Amino acid sequence: FHLQDFLLIIQVIIMWFSTFIQSSIGKKWIMAATGLFLLLFLVSHAAGNATLFASSELFQAYADQLHSHPLIVTVFSSGLLLIFLVHVATGIILFFQNRQARPTRYRVTARAAKNTLASGTMIYSGLCILLFISIHMLNFSLGNEGQPISTIVTTLLARPLYGLFYVAAFLFLALHLSHGFWSMLQTFGLNHPRYTWLISRLTYIVPLTFLIFFAAIPLL
Length: 220
Prior knowledge:
mainly alpha, 79% helix, 0% strand, globular
């Protein structure tokens, strides 16, 4: 086994991967994989925010402990941003590819059970989430130097309009997840008839759980 053979194997893998990600199936796998990472981040974010229900002091202690490892935070944040951008870009590409493949609308508007309001508005709910994240991050990063994160959170979410904006964003997220979660499981091949009943319930339980949890924070 020589270096030339190793380089040839690497070249073949790169060529295969390049062809794969350019296909429709490849893009769906990218959407599913990045969506799974973003879902796991949402779970970890919810776990951290859960400390708010105990006290602002506990939430501040959690944030201080997290940011006491700046290298880990930087690497994690950069990786998360890259995953998020890949998810958004791939979703937009798939949206326009689907539009080109079917330039005219069907006369019959009845939809299959899986093709719900959520599936037909994925691009729009996704863009609303993108807008929320952009504004949310700007509010946390601009003009707040030196302020404790617990104070920033309390100040922002205590504002009625921002609180409504926050809840509305998670309504769009719940709508997005109700199809995205199902689509991710389908892409990964977890669509055996034996699990259909569980999957159909999870597509409602998972989004509603996040919606109720995060909507409770501005109410708090």
